[in-house]
Amino acid sequence: MNCRTGCAACCIAPSITSAIPGMPNGKPAGVPCVQLRADLTCRLFGLPERPAFCGTLQPREDMCGTTREEAMEILERLEVDTRPMP
């Protein structure tokens, strides 16, 4: 499966705990990555500066659903379900 054009749910919904250029402490869930362009593409795609999390995240129907909105809902739920317990 290929990424859906104009989606970028994976650049917004999940938290990223490793450093991102421009976000040295990573990013919280629900916050767009600073490397996300206005056209919802990544400035770091294919570059070594791209966080490992992003490079290993592969689109799948069970994660992306059939629409951008569905992808956001799935990834938001996954973020909550995998959050460490206090």
Question: Can you walk through the features of this model?
Answer:
With 86 residues, this protein is mainly α. It has one domain (9-81). The protein has three helices and no strands. The model has no long low-confidence stretch (mean pLDDT 93).
Give structural attributes.
single chain; 86 residues; mainly alpha; 0% strand; globular
What's the number of extended β-strand segments? 0
Instruction: Count helical runs.
Output: 3
**Average pLDDT for all residues:** 93
> Measured on Cα atoms, how large is the radius of gyration?
12 Å
What oligomerization state is this entry in?
single chain
Based on secondary structure, the structural category is: mainly alpha
Order of helices and strands: HHH
| Biggest sheet layout | none
**Beta-sheet strand percentage?**
under 5%
Bulk shape: globular
Low-confidence stretches: none
**What portion of residues is helical?**
25-40%
Number of domains: 1
Determine the N-to-C terminus distance: 35 Å
Brief write-up:
With about 90 residues, this protein is mainly alpha-helical. The protein has helices at about 50-55, 60-65, 70-80.
List the helices and strands and how they pair.
Elements: H1 52-56, H2 61-64, H3 68-81
